[in-house]
Description:
4 strands; two-stranded parallel sheet
Amino acid sequence: TRLAHGAELFRAGLAPRIIVAGGLTGDATRTEADAGADHLLALGVPAAAILREGRSRHTLENLSNVRDTLRQQGWHRLLVVSDPLHLARVAALARGLGLEARCSPARGATPGGIRFWLRALREAHLLHWYHAGVAYSRLTRNHRYLARVT
Length: 150
């Protein structure tokens, strides 16, 4: 999972802190950040190394809020862990937000099944939507949208 991979990177000294991002989704009563932090604690990551971003509802908000945390802490680089299908979009959003981000894929779905290809198609669609939206917003000088994604 992503959290186990993040814990491995922490133990290897490649991630001195872990920011767990995600707010309330669906019918959840706990944020994804709180659930993720608890899982990291169970994997042996010390509480002092875990930061929580529990306000976001989607990837763009995750990265925007994490960018705020990085700035507050005086940090400049980010190592993003996600599943391989999601990382292309995460990398594009991070670049758009001006983040110096590297990506580390966690084990994800095995290629070949219909669910894998549907997720791949969805990620490709969302990545295209992002790039098209940024290009259109620049063309039309929609500064309100550009402020959200850059």
